[in-house]
Amino acid sequence: MNQIIETIAYLREVIAVQMIDIIFAISMILFFRIFSSSMAYIIIRMFKLKVKSRKKIKESAFYNPLRVFFSLLGIYSAVVFLKQPFGISNEVMVLATRAFEIISVIVFAKGLAASFLPKSTLVKKMKEKTNNVEDSMFDFMLKIIRVVIYIIAGFLVITLLGVNLNGLVAGLGISGVIVTLAAQDTAKNLFGGLVIFLDKPFMVGDWIEMPPYEGTVEDITFRSTRVRTFENSVVNIPNSIIANASIINWSKMEKRRYKINLCIQIDTPLEKLEKFQAKVRDMLQAREAIYDESIIVKFDAIQDNGLNVLISSFTESVDYLSYVAEKENINRKIMKILREEEIELAYDTKTIYVKK
């Protein structure tokens, strides 16, 4: 009976000790979880002594990754603490350690990649020092940097998993031909993207035309260029196609041509025709958007059904909407002059003589 009592007392003592250990481990997890934000703030604050705003520090790319890391550190520390009281095996501890290391690599890789996003403080400072680099080229370089960071993190994770990289490289060498054949299009598109950035035929925001597509460039990625058409649809054009195509960049126009051919009735008196030409020329010269030296108003051809008058000039209205508005205004003025001079436009007619 005494032996049973002693056994029960021992079990109570052991359970009490284990409960204390569990409570302490849970306290460690809660401590790191509650104070993870403060610890992340303190560490970032150490590297940004000049930054006084708490909001800007919290916007740092490493703020959230550090919070996640300290939360994980609390869980890992609790597992390490419980190893001896609960007799956790070395194999389980190895797995826990490896999982902690892998997750830490992923978290910090994500934070490092986030620091190279266009909106990050680091990137804004880099842009200020490299004003001569175009935004599209700069964004493309940032994408390459982020990809390299994730590739390095991937190799670190593979190493932590215990995979022999030499064997992996040898395996890739065996299947290299298959991979190369499968990745031909991807490689072509990648080099096509590099050609676009080096040759600079267009940038994000430009209005381009590449038959059968026409629209505004929204984004340039590794594989394709995204164009928003005037029908408000989106088309993704592979970079390899663009690199070998003839592209019209309408956004590069310094001026835009207005041109119209008017066929006036053939029996119109020359005096009226000359007066009409003079009025059209004066009207064009009076418009601020028209380059005076480019104005052409000429009686350039005699056709079967009428007299052709060529009206041509260049306007500084380059974008499509302003150009159409300017074109409409000129057309209205020309129609008004035609009515004032009582000049009629010729129709495509033919006179047929019947022999009796």
Task: Compose a concise summary of this entry.
The chain has 356 residues and is an alpha+beta fold. The chain has helices at 2-34, 36-47, 54-58, 63-86, 90-114, 121-129, 135-160, 165-174, 176-182, 184-199, 239-243, 270-286, 320-340, and strands at 207-210, 213-220, 224-229, 234-238, 248-249, 256-265, 296-302, 306-315.
User: Helix proportion of residues, in percent?
Assistant: 55-70%
Give the DSSP E fraction (strand runs of 2 or more residues).
5-15%
Cα-to-Cα separation, first versus last residue: 147 Å
User: What gyration radius follows from the Cα positions, in whole Å?
Assistant: 38 Å
Model regions low in confidence, pLDDT < 50 over at least 5 residues? 8-14
Report the structural category. Answer: alpha+beta
The largest beta-sheet arranges its strands as: 4-3-2-1-5
Secondary-structure element string: HHHHHHHHHHEEEEHEEHEEH
Name a few traits of the molecule.
single chain; 356 residues; alpha+beta; 5-stranded antiparallel beta sheet; 3-stranded antiparallel beta sheet; 59% helix; elongated
Kindly describe this structure.
The termini are far apart. It is elongated and about 125 Å long. The model is unreliable at 8-14 (pLDDT under 50). It has 356 residues and is of the alpha+beta class. The protein has a five-stranded antiparallel sheet. It contains 13 helices and eight strands. It has helices at 2-34, 36-47, 54-58, 63-86, 90-114, 121-129, 135-160, 165-174, 176-182, 184-199, 239-243, 270-286, 320-340, and strands at 207-210, 213-220, 224-229, 234-238, 248-249, 256-265, 296-302, 306-315. A hairpin with a 3-residue loop joins strand 2 (213-220) and strand 3 (224-229).
